[in-house]
Amino acid sequence: MLSAACGRLVSAPLSAVARKWLHASVSQLSADRRGKAEESPRALDPVLLEFLVCPLSKKPLRYEASTNELINEELGIAYPIIDGIPNMIPQAARMTHQHKKKEEMEQH
């Protein structure tokens, strides 16, 4: 009986009041997200550096505060930190400039 009542509520068209409330909520959420985008990124908890290693080389990583990334000097890659959470997926990493310069010198 309760599921039938819930089904009617979900399938019922939105009233004008509900539409206004929903529109205001979405607008507020968008404004909150814009405000968060302007804030500085959350830094990595230093305790995590003791445990995190590069998933490719299994070597320790260096935290770079200016770019908010974890750097693998040996491989020349940088893993981004998003909202304080390191993205350790190799496909998400970027090549660092040092590594690119080294590759260019080896090619010549």
Describe this entry's structure for a reader.
This protein has 108 residues and is an alpha+beta fold. Helices cover 41% and strands 16% of the residues. The chain contains three helices and five strands; from the N terminus they run ααβββββα. Strands 1, 2, 3, 4 and 5 form a five-stranded antiparallel sheet that branches. The chain is elongated. The chain starts with a helix and ends with a helix.
The percentage of residues in β strands lies in: 15-25%
State the end-to-end CA separation: 76 Å
Assembly state of the chains shown = single chain
Mean pLDDT: 74
Give the % helix: 40-55%
Please tell me how large the radius of gyration is. 23 Å
Low-pLDDT residue spans? none
Write the layout of secondary structure elements.
Blueprint: H1 2-11, H2 16-38, E1 62-64, E2 69-72, E3 77-82, E4 85-86, E5 94-95, H3 97-107
Antiparallel strand pairs: 1-2, 2-3, 3-4, 3-5
Offer a concise description of the structure:
With 108 residues, the protein is of the alpha+beta class. The chain contains three helices and five strands, in the order ααβββββα.
Could you list some keywords that capture this structure?
5 strands; 108 residues; 3 helices; alpha+beta; elongated
